[in-house]
Amino acid sequence: MNATTASPAGTVGIVAPQRAQFDTPLALRSGGSLPAYQLVFETYGTLNADASNAVLVCHALSGSHHVAGVYADQPKSRGWWDNLVGPGKPLDTHKFFVIGVNNLGGCYGSTGPMSINPATGKPWGSAFPFVTVEDWVDSQARLADQLGIRQFAAVLGGSLGGMQALDWTLRYPDRVRHGMVIAAAPKLSTENIAFNEVARQAILSDPQFHGGDYYEHGIVPTNGLRLARMLGHITYLSDDAMGEKFGRRLRHGEHKFHFDVDFEIESYLHYQGDKFAGFFDANTYLLTTKALDYFDPAYSFDGDLRAAFARAKAKFFIASFTTDWRFSPARSRELVFALLHNGLDVSYAELESTAGHDSFLLDDPHYHAAMRAYFADIEV
Asked: What are the catalytic residues (predicted)?
């Protein structure tokens, strides 16, 4: 099974998304269900004879199934983790068969609020059910079944993707040999939930939102999405990174005494907000941030994280970044201690970085060296 074409060294080259249809209803943690659904995914490398070299990559809030490579008709459409995945890269596609999946509720082709609700013939919109990290993992397990993969060599993710990797080790402990959790946490802090709520309110209060059924009006709650992304983007960067890149530089070299853009950092945030509002779906943003808020493996164990991970069997690689204040190293160490308490095999890397939460997406040599070393030791 190989979805890539011949390519230059270091890249998986031209790739194409695939679709998997599921007609068995999926029970959701919210109490509802999806009668049928579709997942969009991509694969890189070749699945070996006993399907023992498969690695699942789980995406973060605004990520997608497009992890590596480019599309033939979009030469600039490089995958969001292309610096990590490919021949000779830390996650080497000469050795591993890598899968990226767009989560349910997403806006990149998997069934979500933009999809047609078969019961009404209209987009799901506000009627799309709440989905959780646990629901995503269950749907990914069904995809693995369809691909003939009984056990993953590793499940890997950063941020929200790391939470999915964690949940895989709990929901399907016999189907994951290695859980790799990057720049994540076992649950959101109160501050993180607060940031998410402000971002959601920016969308919910946009007059163009129409209660989530803006598709029928042919419009997008652009202002709400812009504000949500601007707020979120601030939390993905460190103060040092923003200071080094923008400082207090003025766009026009002097104070203009107006409420338009004066500082370079303002210009950058406006650009990021406008770009995001041009491709991401507001309902998907709401659903995904709520899934982040709800994730808490220790919830059913009276907050005891050690008890929550008593059923895990995988080996773990945990990585954090020193300037990531949204998912700080202390949160990763909290997870490490819970895993060690259960006698699990844990490798932990606390990496120096000035880039904040976004560090997990960057091509940092120490970070990638740690990842490369860990993947090299995974037997397939």
From this structure: 159 (nucleophile), 324, 357
Q: With a cut of 70, list the residues of the chain below it in pLDDT.
A: 1-9
Residue 334 CA: distances (Å) to CA of 154, 185, 299, 318: 21, 8, 15, 11
Is residue 40 within 8 Å of residue 17, measured between CB atoms? yes
CA distances in angstroms from 221 to 89, 126, 150, 323, listed in the order given:
39, 14, 42, 33
Give the pLDDT confidence score for residue 1 in this predicted structure.
Answer: 45
Q: Catalytic positions, please?
A: 159, 324, 357
Q: Which amino acid is at 197?
A: E
At 213, list the tokens. 């059924």
- Residue 226: both structure tokens together: 């812009």
Reference 203, options 128, 140, 81, 287; nearest CA is: 287
Determine which helix (DSSP H) or strand (DSSP E) holds 42, and give its type and residue range: strand 37-44
CB-based contact 157:181 (threshold 8 Å): yes
Q: Would the CA dihedral through 261, 265, 267, 273 be positive or negative? A: negative
Cβ neighbours, 10 Å, residue 61: 18
What is the spatial distance between Cα 45 and Cα 30, in angstroms, rounded to a whole number?
A: 36
Mean pLDDT of the chain: 95
77 close to 71: Cβ distance less than 8 angstroms: yes
Instruction: Return binding residues for substrate.
Output: 229, 358
* Closest CA relative to residue 68, chosen from 93, 50, 47, 46: 93
> What is the residue whose two structure tokens read 């991401």?
280
In 3D, which of 326, 304, 330, 307 has the Cα closest to residue 318? Answer: 330
Q: Which helix (H) or strand (E) holds 271?
A: helix 264-277
How far apart are alpha carbons 35 and 346 in whole angstroms? 39
- Asked whether the beta carbons of 263 and 242 are under 8 A apart, the reply is no
The distance from CA 366 to its chain's CA centroid, rounded to whole angstroms, is 22
How far are the Cα atoms of 79, 156, 325 from residue 99, in angstroms, in the given order? 12, 10, 29
Beta-bridged to residue 41, according to DSSP, are: 18, 101
Could you identify the residue written with the tokens 């699942």? 56
Give the other-Cβ count within 10 Å of 334's Cβ: 14
